[in-house]
Amino acid sequence: MTNPFFLCTSARNFTSEMATVATSIHSFTSTFRSLYSPPTAIFPTSIFQLRLQPSSPILRSIVSIKCRVDGANTSHFTALGKNVRSFGIVSALGKISETEMVPVPEETEGNLPDGSGIYGIYDSSGELQFIGITRNIAASVASHRKKVPDLCFSVKVGLMDEPTPDRTVLTDAWKSWMQEHLETTGKVPPGNESGNNTWMRPQKKPDLRLTRGRHVKLSLPLEDLIDQLVKEKKIVTFIKGSRSSPQCGFSQRVVGILESQGVDFECVNILDEEHNFGLRETLKTYSNWPTFPQIFLNGELLGGCDILCAMEEKGELGSLLEK
């Protein structure tokens, strides 16, 4: 079998151009799939990582291909990427026992991915406490750490290849990790036991609707309804999609950040043409802000996703939201 990593000798000296990788990606994918199940070690290298930074619009993100050899006779492969289906590479969620364990970041979200997936949280003794399912891994882990810091020491993450995967796909992945743990230990993690509400988030608030229906006559102009809403509620976010299922990465990021802060906030789906008809254009005029999502705090426009992210990174967001 040809070594699929023939393009590099180590992670440190790999400098191949994307064009070279593109011509070899098909054969690499075939080899990757054949090796992944069951895993077979053929590399003497212990740990190395291959990163591709494509300039082609077909690949609009970095593809990371990580090979981790866990011993003399086993290895584990994971491919992570976005918009790379044309090359046939998709993320593969491995078993929980084969997934790398990393420390839970001390910062609000640290370096954990903010995409959809499943995760397992372990205490300081290495005991699995909870297996979760989420649309934002970083936000969920940060929320757990804030609520039960003594039980959040390390985490295993299974990241989905799609930004907004189908709920059934997420649920099946969660079930596979639960089943594996149950078969190994004979019991479910403590946090997943019936009646244990330590780890589970409360039911998410429903999204707000500005009207009773598209064809129902408004009692007030839409702009007045917007003004009334943002002044009555402390934090209001106008996003693409719903709170539980954002329809763009920026909206998902905003929801995740606010949830990780543990604050109460309202969501309005600007894509709901039945109950929020005309909201997108009216809101642009009202706020004098051309893009979405938009976050309002105490009746004033705070900004969009980039501003919220910047404030969080500087440590300014928490104190501002508490005012």
From TrEMBL:
<feature type="domain" description="Glutaredoxin">
    <location>
        <begin position="238"/>
        <end position="301"/>
    </location>
</feature>
<keyword id="KW-0411">Iron-sulfur</keyword>
<dbReference type="InterPro" id="IPR036249">
    <property type="entry name" value="Thioredoxin-like_sf"/>
</dbReference>
<keyword id="KW-0408">Iron</keyword>
<feature type="region of interest" description="Disordered">
    <location>
        <begin position="184"/>
        <end position="205"/>
    </location>
</feature>
<protein>
    <submittedName>
        <fullName>Monothiol glutaredoxin-S12, chloroplastic</fullName>
    </submittedName>
</protein>
<dbReference type="Pfam" id="PF00462">
    <property type="entry name" value="Glutaredoxin"/>
</dbReference>
<dbReference type="InterPro" id="IPR033658">
    <property type="entry name" value="GRX_PICOT-like"/>
</dbReference>
<comment type="similarity">
    <text>Belongs to the glutaredoxin family. CGFS subfamily.</text>
</comment>
<dbReference type="InterPro" id="IPR002109">
    <property type="entry name" value="Glutaredoxin"/>
</dbReference>
<dbReference type="InterPro" id="IPR004480">
    <property type="entry name" value="Monothiol_GRX-rel"/>
</dbReference>
<keyword id="KW-0479">Metal-binding</keyword>
<dbReference type="GO" id="GO:0051536">
    <property type="term" value="F:iron-sulfur cluster binding"/>
</dbReference>
<dbReference type="GO" id="GO:0005759">
    <property type="term" value="C:mitochondrial matrix"/>
</dbReference>
<comment type="function">
    <text>May only reduce GSH-thiol disulfides, but not protein disulfides.</text>
</comment>
<dbReference type="GO" id="GO:0046872">
    <property type="term" value="F:metal ion binding"/>
</dbReference>
